[in-house]
Amino acid sequence: MTEKLFTRPKSLLDVPTHYCPGCYHGIIHRLIAEIIDELHVQDYTIGIAPVGCSVLAYDYFNFDMFGAAHGRAPAVATGVKRVHPDALVFTYQGDGDLAAIGCAEIVHAAARAEKFTTIFINNAIYGMTGGQMAPTTLLSQRTNTSPYGRNSEACGHPIRMSEMLATLEGSIYLARVSVHDAIHMTKAKRCIRKAFELQLQGKGFSMIEVLATCPTNWGMRPLQAVEWLKSEMIPYYPLGIIKDSTEVK
After folding, report:
1. Non-local CB neighbours of 51 within 8 Å, separated by 6+ positions
2. Which residues contact 226 (CB under 8 A, 6 or more apart)?
3. Is the pLDDT of residue 249 over 70?
4. How many Cβ atoms are within 10 Å of 220's Cβ, its own excluded?
5. Which domains does the chain have, with CATH numbers?
6. Which residue of 31, 130, 162, 217 has the lowest C-beta tally within 10 Å?
7. Residue 183 banded pLDDT, cuts 50, 70, 90
8. pTM
9. How far apart are CA 73 and CA 56, in angstroms?
10. Within 10 A of 223 (CB to CB), how many other CB atoms are there?
11. Is the pLDDT score of 239 beyond 90?
């Protein structure tokens, strides 16, 4: 007797993606699609993806998607949510996009308590544009624009975006998760779901930061990249709930 163990979420199209082997975007896409199906909000979900590796996300999700200029997804999401307050609106952004050219956009969206959710993919490097140093690149990490490793005197320290946004009154729920194994995938899904549920309840700004690998631009094999994420990224970007204003004090 055959038992069916896998069902593709309705919110995820049955198409191949362009992502590199070992990239976590596919896993994160699936988690988002599963949650949207479980919440029964596929018909009124709107996603926004700017320039970056996720620029073609509209080809993979089976609901309305917008494209945005580099770093401007929060501005687009603000307009969409204000016009469609009953929709589930989220941005899907990488660290080069959100923490660099889009830093002001995300800060002011959080400060205004805009009622959308951001899924923030932090792989500590620019992915689509060729592996340059990002605001989240770790000290001593080598990239195409820091071939000898990031130097704090010349380039400053990596920015912890979730901790920074936690200082703003308008942010209500911020969590940092990873999807490097099944246990952490489950925790990540739980956090994304809570962020979406809070939005549907009319609460303020929420963001889920997902630590991810980029084997291609890190110059590593996929399994090596997983170990590097665990040994180098997680100590600097600790996992857990960064802020939850909805908890009873």
Report:
1. 68, 69, 70, 71, 97, 128
2. 22, 180, 213
3. no
4. 17
5. 25-131+158-244 (3.40.50.970)
6. 130
7. very high
8. 0.95
9. 14
10. 11
11. yes
